[in-house]
Request: fold
Amino acid sequence: MSLLAVGTGFLLHELAHKITAVRFGQVAGFRASYPMLGFAIASGLAGFLFAAPGAVYHRGRIGVRERGLVAVAGPVTNLGLVVAFAPLALAPGLAGEIGRWGVLVNAFLAAFNMLPAGPLDGKTVLAWSKPVFGLVLAVAVAATGAAVLAFV
Reply:
């Protein structure tokens, strides 16, 4: 269940970066990080899941605004997945369990990726627009908190 939630969240997050970058005329592609893929597998076997097996890289000439929009596309996609998984989370049985994991994982992915540090999306979004950064981070943190309170 967590693999479905994490896989969907990660894949669509990175795909959103790529599609947005390409729309701005960038050459964009996913680059795998095999050490991080190994860490993801090892963490899953240890009982928790941390997955960052690569990222989308893009090149070409774009401005700060476009770079910010490429960065925010991933976390906003995760927030969209929170909304998409939410009705499923209310269902009984396996479907509900998948929905709950989908809400939890995608809310966390959005919040984590909005941290303004290192290679995370939040650093680029903050450099572009403090209001957009604040709004997306606040929604992601609120969604994560609500998901933890509701499902953990």
Summary: The chain has a mean pLDDT of 86.
